[in-house]
Every structure is written in structure tokens, then in C-alpha cells.
Amino acid sequence: MVPHLVPRWPVCLFRWRAACTLGACVPQSAWARASRTPGPGSPRGAVGTSPLVRRGGSSSSSRAPEVMLTRERYPVQRLPFSVVSEEDLAAFERITPGRVVTDPEELEASNVDWLRTVRGCSKVLLKPQTTEEVSHILRYCHERNLAVNPQGGNTGMVGGSVPVFDEIILSTALMNQVISFHGVSGILVCQAGCILEELSRYVEERDFIMPLDLGAKGSCHIGGNVATNAGGLRFLRYGSLHGTVLGLEVVCPAPPPQVCTLLHPQVLADGTVLNCLTSLRKDNTGYDLKQLFIGSEGTLGVITAVSILCPPKPRAVNVAFLGCPGFAEVLQTFSTCKGMLGEILSAFEFMDAECMQLVGHHLGLVSPVQESPFYVLIETSGSRAGHDAEKLSSFLEHVLDFGLVTDGTLATDQRRVKMLWALRERITEALSRDGCVYKYDISLPVERLYDLVSDLRARLGPQAKHVVGYGHLGDGNLHLNVTAEAFSASLLGALEPYVYEWTAGQQGSVSAEHGLGFKKKDVLSYSKPPAALQLMQQLKALLDPKGILNPYKTLPARA
Ligand SMILES: Cc1cc2nc3c(=O)[nH]c(=O)nc-3n(C[C@H](O)[C@H](O)[C@H](O)COP(=O)(O)OP(=O)(O)OC[C@H]3O[C@@H](n4cnc5c(N)ncnc54)[C@H](O)[C@@H]3O)c2cc1C
To answer: Which stretches does UniProt call biased (Low complexity) (predicted)?
Structure first.
């Protein structure tokens, strides 16, 4: 049990208040501990928030040299699509001149997922720059019965972003232009291949922020975010992309003509462009078709442009990183936080002690607070620094007095805020360096969020290297990860279907925010009734009658 440091907080808080006026950010008592945290320039000081500007970073290159082909590891049969011929390559060269990649070395990175767990064997990658080019590609592939795998930043967690067999990879990497930004409404319209971090920078220069943020921001594309309905770190405050995305432009392989005629007739020369790229906050004209594509994981259409509502940039951001003696205290801290910080609360994340050990061991990050069984990261975003600081101080005094928190540190300046966030954001990266990772991303009633982690630790015993739990507690979203030295069928057998049955038993969701992709498509029925599944199959058949778009993904194969 971690010692209860009752007398320290009031002192910290006074010092913190004083320090704030001078632009400092961490209470003195925490500075003493944080001095173990390396600063910039020190050998272990790399705590930036964007470890993924280059895909996978060193984490992938330093591990197993070769990822097993998906078709060898999993029992999956190639569907009877055509095989890309020389004539097809010539046709693609006409559509995207100089942007047809067939070099095996260049293709390698796009055939393997970020986690290095699945690998396709595509022989061609296309890099369109415009919607028209995407439209021509899909029309051609539809006619030729060629399968296509849309790909954004390739940071997906469920094997949806890479081919299973030889699907053509359609990358949005060169579709990276901002189309418009309105300084009054905060509405951003951009192409789908814009990198999230670059968009964040763009809107921040204009006093706005993106409504979503995630650890993969340095690589993931906004189109990929929409296609996966990514949740991330700002979900608690700004909600789902189902609310913040105002419009989409999507290319379908062959949308039925009756759908097209409702939309912009001028683009129908291509027969495939669904232009629902409005910038209206309110629009109740018929069915909200864009919602179908949010979270459709590239199985219904290729998203080519996004219109999204950006909130104003908060003037005051505070991050508190706290140690809690148990999960019950984490939950009570959350309830207290909602009650006392209410309108300024923008994130409530948690991680267990094993996560902290992993970020320390693999990434050299050092905990700024005393070792604790659990840690929470609380972010507030508001418009008046003094007001927010006062509220935060009362909250911290309260949680300390009641023994909910045993140690903590605060940050208000950007550099320290980023350092604290890195501890939480880089867990995924640390896990990927720990060996073979079995990942589960589930929604559960918040009171039961950690039970499954404890349960699995007991169930798996020494079979697992680490069983860890962390995630977006404020959204009831647990990231449950199990690591082992190497892939083991018996460990997988101990995990599945156990984890899914356990989750279904709590009326939870087997995929909170990562989607189903290739790896989770067969567990959809744990969270959706047969009638919903059937309707999904019918929608897929309607929009993609030949099933060429991202086959083997999201929906279970038909019996
Ligand atoms: C370190 C790290 C942290 C992460 N944190 C989070 C998190 O907090 N929350 C979260 O939700 N996810 C998280 N993820 C998962 C991942 O980053 C998200 O799913 C992200 O939205 C994927 O975007 P992408 O551009 O990389 O898409 P990709 O990985 O390239 O593709 C993902 C899926 O979307 C489809 N797709 C991509 N672009 C398009 C398009 N233009 N049109 C149609 N379909 C398309 C692909 O076919 C695939 O099925 C994290 C990943 C990493 C590596």
C-alpha cells in the first residue's frame, strides 16, 4: 500500500498557485519528484506526444523481422476477385500518372499493420490526389472485379487497414489539402488524407482545436479517423465523430442510381461520388447518409473529404496526474471530478501500475508521482485560468482529504502538459515493444471496468507476461492488453471467447472505438442482434454489390 501523504497537498497547492502566476506549472513538492523526469536534451528526455510521425517508429523495426502472412495464420479463403494484370497497371497509370507503386520494398510498409500482426501481399498501391481519381479507380475496379483496400495512416488496431490477400491498396496519403476553414463557425473542410496532427496545428493557429485527439495523431488521417469512428482523448468533452462530423464526400464502388440522384447531379458523370459535404450544423433533409460511413471501416465507400466542427481553443488547460490507492478510489475520484469540475472537465484517463512499469521500461518515461496501484490523468479546459485553478485546487484538496488520491502533480504550461499526457498516450507504443500483444478495446459499465483485468490475471497466471488495463475511464472504455513473448494458440484460447462472453454478460461492447477490421469481425454478434447484422449485410450489398471494398473486414463472412 502506498503511504498516504496527507500533509503534502495543501503545501503543493499553495506553491502551485504561486507558481502559476510566474508561468510555471508543477507544485514544488512534485518538482522534487519530477526531477527524476528527464527534460529535453537529456538522454531519456524524449517525451513528445507524436511518436508516430513515421509509422511504427523504431518499435516495429527492432522486433521480429518478418510478420506471418495473414492467409497463413488465419483460416481465410481468397474470394474470387480478379488478379491485377499488366493491362490493369497501365489503366491505373493513366488514372494516377506516376503514382502507381509496385516496388516490393515500398509496398512492404503498406502490407503490414502498425502492430505487426497481420500481413497482406498486395502488389500495387495507388496514390490518388483527387476525388475524381478515386472515382475512376473504383469504377475501374468495380468493372474488373478487383478488390480494394482503402488505407489512411495505417495505425488501425484491428487489421482493417492492410490487405488480407492481394487487394489493391488505395492510399489517401496525397489527398492532404485543407479546402476551407471558417473562423467564425470553426468549420473545417479538408481532404481525407490530412494528418490529424497537421490539422490540429492548422486550426490551433486560428484559435480552434480539433474535436478529437489520439496517440496516433502524428500518422493517422482524418479520413481514417472517420472511417473508424475514432474516439480518443477528447471524447469525454466533445463527443463522438457522429456529432462533430458535419459532412462527408464519399466514393462508392457502385451506388445505386436512385441514391445518387438525391445528391449533386454534376458529379454523377462518374456515377460514384456521394457529395454530402455540407457545412451545416442542422440539416434534417432525409436520412443522414454520412452517418453510415462513419465507422464503416472502408467497407462501404472511400471517404475523400470531411467537414468537421472544431471547438474554440481553450485559454486555460490544466493537467493533473494523480496516484490512487485502488480502483474503488479511481471511481470515486471520477464521480467527485464530475461533480466539482463539471463544465471544465475535458479528459479523465486511467492506467494501472503495470502500464507505468511498461512505459518506464520500454520508453524510459519516469513517473512524476509516487508508485501507486492506479494513476489518473485529469485534464481541464476552460476560458479563465484563475477560475479553473480555483476549482481544481478545491477538487484536489477534497480528493486528498478523503484518501482518494495519495500523490499528484499538476501542469499548466504546454511542455509539462505534454510530458504528463505522454505517460498515457504512449502506453500503446510501450506494449508493442513488450512482445506479442493481445488487444481488447471494450465498453463496460464503469463500475465493472477493471474487474475483467483482475479476473484475467488470475485466469492466465504465468502464461501471460503482462495483463494491463488502461483507457478512457470517463467514457467507460477499457483497453485490456495481454502480452507474451510470442504468439501462442493456447493463450489465445484462454482469452477468447472468454473476454467476449464476459463483456456480453455485462451488456458491454466488444469494440468501443477501434472497430472490427479483420481481427474482430467474427465477434460482432456478441454486441449486435441478428437483425442488425442482417441489415448491415444488406447495406453492404446495396452500396458495394460485388463486395470489392475491404473484403474480409468488419462483417462476418456469410454462411
Ligand atoms: C499509438 C496509437 C494510439 C491510438 N489511440 C487511439 C485512440 O485513443 N482512440 C481510437 O479510436 N483509436 C486509436 N488508435 C487506433 C487508430 O489510430 C485509429 O483507428 C485511427 O482512426 C486510424 O486512422 P488511420 O488513418 O491510421 O486509418 P488506417 O489504419 O489506415 O485505416 C483504418 C480503417 O479505416 C479504413 N480507412 C482509412 N482511410 C479511409 C478512407 N479515407 N475511406 C474509407 N476507409 C478508410 C481502412 O480501410 C481501415 O479499415 C491508436 C493507434 C495507435 C497506433
So the answer is: 54-63
